[in-house]
């Protein structure tokens, strides 16, 4: 085992956040929460309220997630095989099983095909790093999943990057399919996926998770993310990033995700 390094700079910035800055991030969270709840988006946060760095973006995420109750898990991904992962909390209230009807206030109705893992054993924070083998051993099951993309920003991909990241990294829901038998035998770099909306295939790709090796994300979350998450807990979900980019549906649309070895999952927008 190796000694785990904590992100001291990030922790120091959190500790040194002034009362004024904390109030600004609370105001930013309130603006995004109102936009999400009413379905009336904002173009972007006012410049003074935009997170200045990732510690502030994560602080904003936590304030938004707190409004929705218990955390059911985490979304994590990386834009390339070399990039440091980014992660965000997923409210338990937004999670559902295969065939779920996704209602509430929906405007963006984005869809991403993903691979998710259900944690079976607690991985509490500790001084030594968890090995990849230890983290894999703590996984209860692997599932196909759809992440529903939603945002309080009119076009989150055109807003300031830190605004988008602070708004739960566009998270709006999570639907998981049946557990995959013998998932450890799957070569995810060769896995094929399609996502269809109302019967028409929108995206079809192979080995397209942008993190390169998606299994690297879980040890990173268990170790580097532990200060923020409080450690991964049995019963939490971790979903590991899009294979298909973002596609979208309409009211009443049915979405179907099919992996070649990792099963399939479906949802319908109300």
From TrEMBL:
Claim: Nucleotide-binding is one of the keywords in the record: no
Location of the Fumarylacetoacetase-like C-terminal domain: 110-254
Protein name (record): 2-keto-4-pentenoate hydratase
Top-rank taxon: Bacteria
Signal sequence extent: none
One GO cellular component, as annotated: cytoplasm
Transmembrane segments: none
Pfam families linked to this entry: FAA_hydrolase
Keywords, in A-Z order: Lyase
Molecular function GO terms recorded: 2-oxopent-4-enoate hydratase activity
Organism the protein comes from: Tunturiibacter lichenicola
